[in-house]
C-alpha cells in the first residue's frame, strides 16, 4: 500500500531496517524512539572513562549475513566495513598457551576439514562430518542432544562459536537455531563466513547512515518520544499515547513495533514472547592494539571469550554472562587484563578501562524460548512486529534484527 503513515516504534536496527525499506515506497515514515539516540544495543557513544568513542557491544558480522550486507550497501555504510580476502579465525588456549588458525576454504565443498593445517589441532575430518547431525535438528532438540559435546572440535570450535551466537550454554541451546547459523555461514564455505570489522564502530557504519537515509527522504526520527500505550478499536490500533500527546492513526496508517520483547508485552495485550534473557558484558581497555595481534581472537579456557583489537583499544566480549552480573568490576577488569596480556604478549600496567554490562542482551536461545517467539503478523490488522526476538529463524543477531525489519516492512506495505 502506498500512502498513509507508517509509525515505527523503536530506532534500533530492526526499526531502522523497516524504515529504510519503507521510506522509498510512497509511505510517510515516522520513527518514535524513547532514547535520545538511535541504534539500541548496537549504538556507539563517547565513554568518558576511556576518553574515546566505543560501541556498546562488540557485534560480529559475517560476509554471509546477506540482509546486513544489503542494508549496509543501501545506506552507504559498506565502505566502512573491513572485509578480509579469506575467512581466517584465530584462537588462543589460555591453559595450554597454544594458538591456531581455522581456515575454511572459500567454496562450499569443505575440503578444508581434510587439511590438518586448516582445522582445529588434534581433530580429525570425521569429527566435523559428525557435526552434520545438527542440520537435521527438530524444534524441541538441544545442541547437546544432537552432537557429542565431549570432543576437542566442540570445546575448541563449536562451543565458542555457538556461545556467541546463541548467548546461552550451547548444550542447552536450540539445535534448530544453531543449525541455521551453521547453514548460512560455515555451511556455505569460507566465502560466507569472512569476519567483517567496523574499525570506526557500528554507529558510523550501521546506525548514523540509516538515520540520515531516512531523514534525507522526508522520513522523521523523533527522539525522546516513547510510546506509553496504544488505544485499540476493534481489530486495529487507533492511537499512540505519548507523555504529552496522543497521535491518532488514520485508516491507512500502520504501526511497526520494533521494541524489546518486554516492552512489546506492555503495549500489546496477550502477546506471546520470550521471557528469559541472558546477559553479555564487554570490557574495554584504552590500549593501542599491538600490530601482530589479530583483529579478532577466540579464547579458550579463560573468562575472555573473544578479543577484539581496535586501533586505539582492546575489547573483550563475554556471552551468557549472568554469573558475572554481581561481580565487582575492578577485580574483573584486572583478571581480563591479565588474560589479554598473556594472549598479546604485553607487559604493561592495566590502562584506563570500562566494563559495560547488558543484563537483558538477548533472549535465551533455548528450544522452549525459541518456541515463544512471535511472527511479525499480529491479530491487529495494522500492527506488525520487528526485533531479533521475533521468529526470524535465527538467534538474536544483527542479521536477524535487520531481517525482521524487512519482513515487517513488507507486511506493512501489503496491509
Give a brief outline of the structure.
The chain is of the alpha/beta class. Helix content is 27%, strand content 22%.
Overall description:
There is one protein chain. This protein has 415 residues and is an alpha/beta fold. Among the domains are: 5-45 and 202-275 and 366-414, FAD/NAD(P)-binding domain (3-Layer(bba) Sandwich), CATH 3.50.50; 111-191, no CATH class. It has 11 helices and 19 strands. The protein has a 7-stranded mixed sheet, sandwiched between helices. Strand 3 and strand 4 (52-55) form a beta hairpin. Helix 1 runs parallel beside helix 7 (202-216), helix 1 (13-22) runs parallel beside helix 11 and helix 2 crosses helix 11 (398-414). The radius of gyration is 22 Å and the shape is globular. The model has no long low-confidence stretch (mean pLDDT 95).
Give descriptors for this structure.
415 residues, single chain, seven-stranded mixed sheet, 19 strands, five-stranded parallel sheet
- Beta-strand residue fraction: 15-25%
State Rg: 22 Å
Task: Please write the string of helix (H) and strand (E) elements.
Answer: EHEEEEHEEHHHHEHEEEEEHEEEEHEHEH
Q: Looking at CATH, which topology of the domain at 5-45 and 202-275 and 366-414 would you report?
A: FAD/NAD(P)-binding domain
* Strand order, sheet with most strands: 7-6-15-16-17-14-18
Number of strands: 19
Principal-axes shape call: globular
- Average predicted local confidence, pLDDT: 95
Distance N to C terminus: 6 Å
Q: What is the structural class?
A: alpha/beta
Helical segment tally? Answer: 11
Judging by the overall fold, what is the CATH architecture of the domain at 5-45 and 202-275 and 366-414?
A: 3-Layer(bba) Sandwich
Query: Can you identify the CATH superfamily of the domain at 5-45 and 202-275 and 366-414?
Result: FAD/NAD(P)-binding domain
CATH class of the domain at 5-45 and 202-275 and 366-414: Alpha Beta
Task: Point out poorly predicted stretches.
Answer: none
The helix fraction, in percent, is: 25-40%
Largest beta-sheet characterization: 7 strands, mixed
Amino acid at each position: 500500500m502506498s500512502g498513509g503513515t507508517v509509525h515505527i516504534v523503536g530506532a534500533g536496527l530492526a526499526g531502522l531496517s523497516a524504515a529504510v525499506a519503507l521510506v522509498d515506497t510512497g509511505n510517510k515514515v515516522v520513527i518514535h524512539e524513547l532514547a535520545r539516540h538511535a541504534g539500541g544495543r548496537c549504538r556507539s557513544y563517547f565513554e568518558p572513562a576511556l576518553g574515546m568513542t566505543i560501541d556498546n557491544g562488540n557485534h560480529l558480522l559475517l560476509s554471509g549475513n546477506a540482509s546486513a550486507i544489503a542494508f549496509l550497501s543501501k545506506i552507504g555504510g559498506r565502505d566502512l566495513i573491513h572485509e578480509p580476502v579469506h575467512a581466517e579465525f584465530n584462537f588462543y588456549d589460555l591453559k595450554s598457551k597454544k594458538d591456531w588458525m581455522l581456515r575454511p576454504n572459500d567454496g562450499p565443498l569443505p575440503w578444508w576439514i581434510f587439511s590438518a593445517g586448516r582445522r582445529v589441532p588434534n581433530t580429525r575430518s570425521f569429527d566435523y562430518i559428525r557435526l552434520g547431525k545438527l542440520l537435521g535438528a527438530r524444534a524441541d532438540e538441544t545442541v547437546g542432544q544432537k552432537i557429542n559435546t565431549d570432543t576437542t572440535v566442540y570445546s575448541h570450535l563449536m562451543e565458542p562459536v555457538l556461545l556467541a551466537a546463541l548467548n546461552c550454554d550451547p548444550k542447552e541451546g536450540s539445535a534448530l537455531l544453531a543449525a541455521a547459523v551453521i547453514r548460512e555461514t560455515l555451511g556455505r564455505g569460507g566465502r560466507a563466513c569472512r569476519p567483517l570489522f567496523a574499525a570506526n564502530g557500528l554507529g558510523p557504519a550501521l546506525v548514523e547512515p540509516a538515520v540520515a537515509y531516512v531523514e534525507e527522504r522526508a522520513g522523521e526520527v523523533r527522539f525522546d518520544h516513547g510510546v506509553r500505550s496504544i488505544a485499540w478499536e476493534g481489530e486495529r490500533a487507533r492511537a499512540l499515547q505519548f507523555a504529552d500527546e496522543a497521535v491518532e492513526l488514520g485508516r491507512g496508517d500502520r504501526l511497526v513495533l520494533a521494541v524489546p520483547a518486554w516492552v512489546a508485552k506492555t503495549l500489546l495485550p496477550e502477546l506471546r514472547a520470550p521471557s528469559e534473557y541472558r546477559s553479555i558484558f564487554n570490557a574495554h581497555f584504552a590500549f593501542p592494539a599491538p600490530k601482530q595481534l589479530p583483529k579478532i581472537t577466540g579464547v579458550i579456557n579463560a573468562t575472555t571469550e573473544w578479543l577484539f583489537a581496535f586501533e586505539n583499544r582492546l575489547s573483550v566480549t563475554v556471552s551468557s554472562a549472568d554469573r558475572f552480573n554481581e561481580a565487582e568490576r575492578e577485580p574483573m577488569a584486572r583478571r581480563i587484563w591479565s588474560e589479554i596480556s598473556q594472549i598479546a604478549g604485553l607487559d604493561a600496567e592495566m590502562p584506563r578501562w570500562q566494563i559495560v554490562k547488558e543484563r537483558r542482551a538477548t533472549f535465551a536461545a533455548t528450544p522452549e524460548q525459541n518456541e515463544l517467539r512471535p511472527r511479525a503478523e499480529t491479530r491487529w490488522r495494522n500492527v506488525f512486529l520487528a526485533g531479533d526476538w521475533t521468529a526470524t529463524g535465527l538467534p538474536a543477531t544483527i542479521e536477524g534484527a535487520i531481517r525482521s525489519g524487512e519482513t515487517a516492512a513488507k507486511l506493512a506495505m501489503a496491509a
